[in-house]
Structure of Carrier domain-containing protein:
Amino acid sequence: MRPHVASDRVSPRWSPEFEQTLREHLPDLDEGVELADDDALFDLGLDSFGTVDLMVTLEGRLGVSIPDDKLTAETFATVGSLWGVLGPLLHGAPSAVPPD
């Protein structure tokens, strides 16, 4: 199967900061390959230490704090599952927790 090649525009599904941060933390993601909702983060090279670093970096760059009950393997399973937690926090959902 041929990988999807990213165009010059960023996916409207998530923020440019989110995608850029993911790309920096996914060592097995080839440059120019488009990210999809169902891409497994661990298949793209994210490990347990990388998960912690990714979380800290995302919280800092996006100005949110991921609630403790969302710090699960399911949250960090795929691009879409992670954005599913972060997206509402960015858009002021009631479950949003301000950063420390």
